[in-house]
Amino acid sequence: xxxxTDNFSAYGDGFLGTLRLTVYASLLALALGFLxxxxxxxxxxxxxxxxxxxxxxxxxxxxxxxxxxxxxxxxRFGLVLPFQVFAVLALGCYTSAFICEALRAGVxxxxxxxxxxxRSLGMxxxxxxxxxxxxxxxxxxxxxxxxxxxxxxxxxxxxxxxSVTELLGTYKTLNELGYSIIWTFVWIAVGYLVITLAIxxxxxxxxxxxxxxx
Length: 214
Fold this sequence. Notes:
Pfam family, one: BPD_transp_1
Membrane topology: Multi-pass membrane protein
Helix content: over 70%
Transmembrane segments: 21-42, 49-74, 80-100, 181-206
Family: Belongs to the binding-protein-dependent transport system permease family. HisMQ subfamily.
Largest sheet: none
Subcellular location: Cell membrane
Distance between the termini: 44 Å
Order of helices and strands: HHHHHHHHHH
């Protein structure tokens, strides 16, 4: 227990760092995932191609490589931002590809008659998608979206290797101070468990409120 009590501030900083990364990257992933899912089902061929390329490239790129590309590559093109912002971009963009595919799968569960009925009322594609199709699709994809965001929280550990303050990175300091590596990782695991259980509880509430009855 002294590993935690003696280094509570270090664990606290790491926990808050991971929490910030998770929240900001999740918001970015949801926004981009929603946008790319719209592109994937759009009647405009160029938008469908863009959405397909986005998903294909990001889903098949190792996250560590994406971190290198964003944190070390973008500054070479004159884009200099705090490392935490770069980490949010890498995590958010990577996860958005999986959110997009989850939403697209949900769109395929909505009966075609729903969209046809909306169009017969004079609604545009954007109105049909945002007001009729995606709200119904989201109800059926709450569990997979929640699982994807839980994976995002755990993937945020990679950011520690790029000078971003997060929970896993605290082990380096504590190891140098001579604390037991086993108990150091135990308390790190507890921190991640708290975050992932909070996300799981949130999506459980969403599923009970808006999910499709089985």
